[in-house]
Amino acid sequence: xxxxxxxxxxxxxxxxxxxxxxxxxxxxxxxxxxxxxxxxxxxxxxxxxxxxxxxxxxxxxxxxxxxxxxxxxxxxxxxxxxxxxxxxxxxxxxxxxxxxxxxxxxxxxxxxxxxxxxxxxxxxxxxxxxxxxxxxxxxxxxxxxxxxxxxxxxxxxxxxxxxxxxxxxxxxxxxxxxxxxxxxxxxxxxxxxxxxxxxxxxxxxxxxxxxxxxxxxxxxxxxxxxxxxxxxxxxxxxxxxxxxxxxxxxxxxxxxxxxxxxxxxxxxxxxxxxxxxxxxxxxxxxxxxxxxxxxxxxxxxxxxxxxxxx
Length: 310
Known about the structure:
- With 310 residues, the protein is mainly α.
- The protein has helices at 2-25, 27-30, 36-63, 73-98, 116-128, 131-160, 165-193, 195-215, 219-245, 253-282, 285-291, 293-303.
- The chain has one domain: Up-down Bundle (Growth Hormone, Chain: A), CATH 1.20.1250.20.
- It is globular, with a radius of gyration of 20 Å.
């Protein structure tokens, strides 16, 4: 069963990544430049709210299956997968029905998957002609790697220092529900003061998060950490997307956002490897989480060179 499960997971990741590429590219179509920070933030905010609600329901289905008419926790997990599929399908319908997308100037073309890597290299060369966007992507690759590492490794880190799974689930829910209003606030902040300032704030907060996590010992401290992460996680994601949309030509938005998402996915590899390696060699998981601060500092080094287009 494991090979089949791995295959399903791979298909899901490909579908999710591909959908995000086109979804992000639609930002240029549905929002004028002066509204993109707010619209991008609204998208992430609603995503955190919806994801938090569904995650809470799925947790309850697993912990209290009899309340949902289910036999046991295993059946709760199975129905959780079904509920996610239904949820995604229902909330995708308005996008398919009501968002109009203009056809490319060249019209419809057949997709040749054999040329995928060639096209990726061509896109990289094309983006390099836009110095501001290229430097931004380099900075983004570094600091979003730090963000993704904290997201992906937080549960493992919490378990390694002795926190229970119940405490960690509560912390994850805190991130989701605090992320909803916080993302909206950062959308307004980006609209008023520029995305660059908002991202600066978020990155510095994440530096503080890694330092705080190094000293963390109790569940209460974990909740505080989760609340702080919730305050900035949606903000840094939303403002990064909207800022990039204003650094690229609109006629290349789908192509460039495809590369933007490739950069984001590639970034998800280095951070966890670095954190795990340092934790293993030192025998101290706290040093592993502290090392993530290096990614944020490196990201800020390049990010300071990016000119904000407001």
